[in-house]
Structures are given as C-alpha cells and as structure tokens.
Amino acid sequence: MPAFFQSRAGRQCVSIVVFGVTLWLLGTLLHFDDGLVTFMIGFSEYGADKLVLALGIAGAMSFIYSVLRIADLRKEMDLRDAAQAKADWTATHDHLTKLPNRYAFERKLLSRPILDEEAEIEDWARNVTIFSVDLDGFKKVNDLVGHKGGDGLLIEVAKRICALGNADCVYRFGGDEFIIVAFGMTAQREEHFAKLLIQAVTRPILIDGFAVEVGASVGYDRWAEGAEPLEDAAHRADLAMYEAKSRGPNHSLVFEASMQDKVAERAALETSLRAAISKKAIKPFYQPLIDLKTGQLCGFEALARWIGDDGVNIPPPVFIDIAEETGMITALFEDLLAQACSDALDWPEHVTLSFNVSPVQMEDRLLASRILKVLSASRLPPQRLEVEITENALIQDPAVAAVVLDELHAAGIQIALDDFGTGYSSLAQLARYRFDKIKIDKSFVATYRDDERQEKIVRAMLGLGRSLNIKTTAEGVEEHGQLAFLLQLGCDIGQGYLFGKAMPAAEASIFISDRNASLASTA
Ligand code: C2E
Ligand code: CA
Ligand code: CA
C-alpha cells in the first residue's frame, strides 16, 4: 500500500474526497445544480454568484493547503523514521568496526547466515554454531602503536573476520572480543573455520609503517535452538575460548562439560581465597638469597604460601592470579608485607627482605605510599626492603610505573628486575629505569648446559649487569655444577633449592643461625 494511504492524514484526505464526489454525484442526480443556478440568478444582484465563486476558490485553496500540509507531515515522519533508525543503529552497533554489538546479539538479530557450502539451505536453522574470538597480546600492541593504532588494528581484524563469513553474523562484544554466528556447519567444518579465524587474525597487520601481529584464541559451541537462549551458547563458546587461551596463544577448542566444572572450581577458589585473606591464613615463607662471593646469607625472598582447609597447598601463581583479577591483591599484599616486615626485624641487619609486586599493582599510583605506610608501621628501615617487579609490570602503564619506582627509590627502597629475560622489551627497560638488581630467570639456569645459546645469553646477561653496575641474582640454582658456572662468570647472588627452599619464619631464624655456625666453622 502506498505510504500516503498508510498515514491517518492521507486516509482522511481520501475519505473527504470520496465524500465530496458522492455529494457532487447526488447533487447532479437530484439536479441541485439547476436549483443553484436558479437561486443564483434570483439573487445575483445581491452578489450571490460572486459568493459561490469565492467559496469555490476557497475550497480549492483549502484543498491545496491540505495536500501541502500532508506532504509536510510525510516529510516530518520520514525524518523521524530516519532518526529512529539511526538511534537504533547506534544502539546496536560498534562505532569503530561498524559491527553489530552485544546488544544486537541479545536481541537475536540473526539475519543472513554464513552458510557452509556443503550444507543444505534448510539445515541452517537447525544448526547454529557460535564462535568466540579473543585477541592475544592486543594490549601490548596498543602500548606499542598507541590507541589510534590499536583502533586501526581492530578495524582490520573485523574486516578479516567478516571476509571469512558474513558481516551481519559477526559481532564485536567490546574490547578485543568478537562473536561469529555460523550456520549449517559440520563438526569438521567448525574445526576448520576456527583455524581459519586464527590464520586470518594472526597475519601481520601494517599500522603506521609497523608490521604488528596479534594472536587469537577461539572457542566454539553449538546452539541448542529452541531449548536455550542464544546467549547460553555464546557463554559456552566463551568458556571454551578462555580454556584455549590458557593453553597459550593461537589455540582453538570446542566446548566440553569439564570447562564448566573448571569455572565452578575457580568460583569456589575465589570464595575461599576471600575467606583466607580475611583470616590471614596466607603466610609469607622465606627463601634464602646467598652472596656467592662470601657464601653469606644476604637476604630472604618472601613467597606467599596458602595451605587450603583440606591441607592442600595452592600454588602462588594460581591464587595471585585470582587475587589480581578480583582486586583482592592490594589487601593480600599489604597483609603479607606487614607480616614479612615484622619477621624481618628478627633477622641480622645486613639480611634484606625481597618482596614481589605483581604487574597489576604497578598500575596503582598509590603503591609507593602503601608500602611506606606498612614499613613505617613495622619500623623496618626502607633500606632493608627490596621490591621485585617483572618486566611485564612496566609495560601496562609505563608513566605510572616510572613515578612509583622513583618514589620507592627516593625512600631508599631497592628495586630488582625479576624473571629477567622472559618478559617484554627487557633492554629498553634497563635503559629507561634504574634498577639495583637483575634476577636471571631460573629457566636460563636450568637449560644453559644443554643449549649453547642459553649459555651465551646467561654470559651476556651477567656481563650486562657488570657493565651497568647492577648486581645480578641467579634464580633456580639446584646443583653444584650450576653454582660453579655462575661463580666463574661473576654472578653476585644465588637463590635456589641448593641453598634452601622457601621456609616459614621460625625455620628462617634457624637457617640464619645454622648458616652463621657453618660459616664460622669453615673460616
Ligand atoms: P618468582 O618471584 O620468580 O619466585 C621464584 C619461584 O621460583 C618460587 O616459586 C620459588 O619457590 C621457585 N624456586 C626457587 N628456587 C627454585 C629452584 O631451585 N628450582 C625451581 N624449580 N624453582 C625454584 P613460587 O613460590 O611457587 O612462586 C611462583 C611465583 O609466584 C613467584 O615467582 C612470584 O611471581 C609469584 N609470587 C609468589 N609469592 C608472591 C607474592 O607474595 N606476591 C606476588 N605478587 N607474587 C608472588
Ligand atoms: Ca621474585
Ligand atoms: Ca623470579
């Protein structure tokens, strides 16, 4: 039906015209016109003919006016429709990539399908697969090429994903996460498509003359159409994607029920971690740091230990990770640091306390003042504290990291660069920040004998430390052979199972007296 007849004004106009024509026909049939002529002739000297002419013209003018008003109204409605459509688009699309967003997905705007060439058209409605894609290392690229460059990368990634399928079936769920809805795929085809997605995303992308690369983790699952909302399938695809991500970059996995169990386990762990922090059940243990030139104990590194209610030891990387993600890290850190500072007061003055700071904490502008507050409450001199940070902790927010490190240095606290050689852009960081110590990661100490290249790297790292006048610590010293090699290369400090594992405070005190006794007997 034409738009004109759809509007109320249009319908009224038609009704009036029909009514007018009916009246005219009736008038003609009943010869009203003859009566009118007679009437006008009779009264023409009083100007009735002119009055009828005026009424006729007025009628025509009103008609034209009405038509114009209707046209105006139509235009107004078109504008309103366009504004509505624009608002709708804005609410359901991502501005950067122009892809539909999570809201569009939730409204199930599934339109034209990505079809597997082999699949029958009528199959698609019964066979929907949701792919969840998350970029690996996007943050690093963002830091490298800036936010504008990062935007350019996301646009290119979106284009590449769309090129594999259909733009209407690709959604950006915010950040670096995309959802693809595919139809009519066999299990083999799904696996193949997931690999294609990874290939498409990981090809180098040229941004401002830089060829940058990101990885991609992909998870996917079928939608049980009719039995569940589409979001449930997307949630399972997400779980599979997280599992794929935990296996390293560029993995793809189909959802399995065990992944759901893992999530439940993690949620339970989060609850018990919260309880453990409030009960102060997580304790610092102390691993000795040995001055390799004198054989003397020169410090202890505090390492968090958590024995769960069931007596099982939960590894620090597991609970530190959860504490970081849930924001519990600050409370845990302050508590552990306070315990460690009070333990360190019992040690000889030359024995320092090394304490790990996680990357997330380095984004906290108040980190230095938090540390200083704990120090002053415990009365441990700042010179006896060494903060260990990893290379990755410096790239999240380099400006904040620089301020925090300056404040710590100004207070007299030492800074060690931990896990040296395993992170990101180590040399650039050595040039930019002032470190008092570098800790060579245990992976180098463990492999230097089997791999000549690793040996050369260890030599180079120790040489670098010497020339920059920064002390070096070798981690993971487990054997006498390794100790001899490190001594020969002039490494300053050793840490590892050869000297001692991390131990509770009481054992650390015994370790100190035993070590002193054995040094005295060998002297
Ligand atoms: P890290 O800072 O590199 O700590 C050294 C890790 O190496 C410790 O593992 C230690 O037990 C282990 N280690 C020491 N000597 C040897 C050895 O000879 N051989 C082998 N194979 N391993 C050795 P741990 O205690 O499991 O801690 C793992 C990581 O968890 C730490 O790595 C650190 O990044 C983090 N972490 C531990 N405690 C804390 C904490 O209180 N705060 C923060 N932010 N992170 C912590
Ligand atoms: Ca450390
Ligand atoms: Ca380390």
From TrEMBL:
Residues 266-516 form the EAL domain. Pfam families: EAL, GGDEF. It comes from the Bacteria. CDD domains: EAL, GGDEF. The keyword Metal-binding does not apply. Residues 126-257 form the GGDEF domain. The keyword rRNA-binding does not apply. Keywords: Membrane, Transmembrane, Transmembrane helix. Signal peptide: none annotated. This is Diguanylate cyclase (GGDEF)-like protein.
